[in-house]
Please model this.
Amino acid sequence: MSEFIQESKYVELIYKVIDQKTGAVFSNIEYPVGYVHGANDVLGKEVLAELEGREEGDIIEIKVDVEKLYGPRDEALVFIDKIENVPEEYRKVGTKVTMENKDGQPKEFLVTKVDDGTVTIDGNNPLCGRDVKFILEVTLVRDATIEEMEAGGTTDSEPSLDEILDNVNATKH
Model:
């Protein structure tokens, strides 16, 4: 008998993040990530709502409003500098750079372009300004254990949008 995704169910998924315009795959996670449905909203409320009532084997395509999640793209967060002004360790596409604002608050940037003369560093989320969809495949649905309920997911680790985006960064470059 199939179990359906509902509150207190442990769910495992594999997924892809795809650019709707180009079809480019930003991320392709082929190992299942687990969470407890209803214990938190680490996947985002839109995604969780779409998963409700689904069962093992279902494949769900969800268009994600990236602007709603991260705000509009801000070109003021894009910096281009001469390559000689940038330390060697920050001259590789995909490198994370943490900077502080005038109040000392940290902000993570990503090296998005390196050419013969310049380095481009961008503080926008890598998905900003893009139309993306998630294709999720439900690989497991079962009752969550007490430990999983307390942790909100697998007791090893739980998926998060940040984890998804780190994977997007890694596969994009």
User: Anything to note?
Assistant: The helical segments are 45-51, 66-70, 146-151, 161-172. The first helix runs from residue 45 to 51. The CA atoms of residues 12 and 34 lie 4 Å apart. DSSP finds four helices and eight strands in the chain.
